[in-house]
Amino acid sequence: MVVIRRATSPAEVMAAAHLFDGPVRPEWAQRFLNEPTHHLLIAALDGVPVGMVTGMELTHPDKGTELFLYELAVDPAHRRRGVGRELVEALGRLARERGCHGMWVAVDPDNLPARAAYAAAGIAEEGPATMMTRELRDPAARESGGEADTGDPHPEGDRPTAGADGDPAPDRRPTG
Questions:
Q1: What CA–CA distance (Å, rounded) separates 104 from 124?
Q2: Residue-wise pLDDT tens digits, 135-168
Q3: What is d(CA 95, CA 174) in angstroms, rounded to the nearest whole number?
Q4: Do 28 and 10 meet the contact criterion of CB atoms below 8 Å apart?
Q5: Residue 68: which of 42, 37, 36 has the closest Cα?
Q6: CA–CA separation, 145 vs 141, rounded Å?
Q7: Can you give the pTM of this predicted structure?
Q8: Which of 85, 87, 132, 129 is nearest to 108 (CA)?
Q9: 82-120 per-position pLDDT tens digit
Q10: Residue 146 burial (CB < 10 Å; 0-12/13-18/19+)?
Q11: What secondary structure, in 3-state letters, does 36-69 show?
């Protein structure tokens, strides 16, 4: 039986590091966990992490608070068993408990496994969207491989993500 719990320590995040796109840094994990509006749920089977989902509450003056589902990943050996759906549903319950009026995720149109997992969890598609980005690091820092003081875990500006099926997508920005 899969057990889903909210991560509360960098050690828990490090134990699930194989589910993330890149190396997990304990200091970034701690920074994420310190934010009361950031949520990281880990699904474990017999104590071993097999899936994770992250989300962040966003509040806007004219929209109230909604939850942005940032990333979902399931270990390849545990896919197609409902783990992704269970994680998304658990995150939705947490968002509702915290007073969020909705939850959203951006998904690449060709990421069919992610779209299927989100649909199974009750998330409706609204149509295509375009993501635009801007590099914020100083050009010298980019050249030297250094990073800005933003705590960005992907200092090169490349934010790979795994779809709902957990397959890495190194050429994509966060899309859930």
A1: 9
A2: 998 877 666 555 554 454 444 444 444 444 444 3
A3: 20
A4: no
A5: 37
A6: 6
A7: 0.78
A8: 129
A9: 999 999 999 999 999 999 999 999 998 888 888 888 999
A10: exposed
A11: CCEEEEEEEECCEEEEEEEEEEEEECCCEEEEEE
- 110/1 Cα distance (integer angstroms): 31
Local structure of residue 30 (DSSP, 8 states): H
Q: What angle do CA 125, 122, 52 make, to 5 degrees?
A: 100
Distance separating alpha carbons of residues 160 and 130, to the nearest angstrom:
17
Place of tokens 């589910």: 19
Eight-class DSSP state of 80: T
Structural contact between residues 40 and 6, judged by C-beta atoms closer than 8 angstroms: yes
Comparing CA positions, the residue from 49, 47, 12 lying closest to residue 29 is: 12
DSSP of 102-137: -EE----TT-HHHHHHHHHTTPPP-----------S
Closest CA to 56 of 46, 69, 44: 69
- The secondary structure of residue 161, as a DSSP letter, is E
- Single-letter code of the amino acid located at 70: Y
